[in-house]
Amino acid sequence: MGKKFFPIIFLGLMLVLAACGGNESESEQSTEDKGEINIGLNNWAENVAVSNMWKVVLEEEGYTVHLTQVEKGALYTALENDDLDLGLEVWLPYTDEVFYEQYKEDLAWHKTWFSGTELGLAVPTYMENIETMEDLKANADQFDGKIVGIDAGASLMGLTEEAIGEYGLDGYELQSSSGPVMTAELGKAMEDEAPILVTLWKPHWVFAEYDVKFLEDTKKVYGEKEDISWVSRQSFEEDHPELTETLNSWQMDDESLGSLMNMIKEEEDAEAGAKKWVEENRALIDEWIKPLQ
């Protein structure tokens, strides 16, 4: 009996093992590593937000994603040298114009994902006597002659240096720091209802948190409203056509981007906040990533 049925039992076991092996292969294939994506990250609130959001989304899709913190100038150099794959925040036609002109033939410039930005100098709304850039000239003492800036290499800082010259703000010193340092100083000043003058941009979570206002830029040093797009190394689309199509279908507005930034701020951990936002906005994410499916 045992000898007679051994081949049948053995064949059955082999089929079971083969089936199990097939399931493992299918599982492994579904989570197959699609390669590494290196994203250049600068320390602006919305850049931190969208970079971490895409890290979460792409890692779910099987990519290995690295975020490298760089200043704006270094970002474009790294993309040109193929040391980075992506930069997710390009402000055009004004803020990043200098970088576009320098690298327009060496990098790949892609579609807009956010429309209608704004940037300039801002103060709390309780400073009722300061409404325009011209108002600053006679009120330097209120601010101790200090403009709280962000990263030294940011285009916003260069534009602010131009504004100091255009508006004759010789009594002011532009102090470089970082996005988080600037917002921390803004928050502390507003708790005390103290004067403060900062470089700021929109979209930014501070507009949901605090009552602040941009100063009217009558000379248009900071330009008109802009759009945010993304940039990649030259051969990125050839290497990752589906991912390029995915990123070109990505669209956000004040509500979606603001909620992402706020969730990251509340979580106090960028990746954890981004992951929570992705879970709560799965339908939107699924629309973006259809080319990857």
TrEMBL record:
Signal peptide (UniProt feature, chain positions): 1-18
GO biological process, one term: glycine betaine transport
CDD domains in UniProt: PBP2_OpuAC_like
Primary residence: membrane
Protein's UniProt name: Glycine/betaine ABC transporter
Keywords recorded for this protein, A-Z: Cell membrane, Membrane, Signal, Transport
Record-annotated ABC-type glycine betaine transport system substrate-binding domain positions: 36-280
Domain of life: Bacteria
Gene Ontology MF: a single term: carnitine transmembrane transporter activity
InterPro entries: ABC_Gly_betaine_transp_sub-bd (IPR007210)
GO cellular component: ATP-binding cassette (ABC) transporter complex
One Pfam assignment: OpuAC
Protein's cellular compartments: Cell membrane
Organism: Pontibacillus litoralis JSM 072002
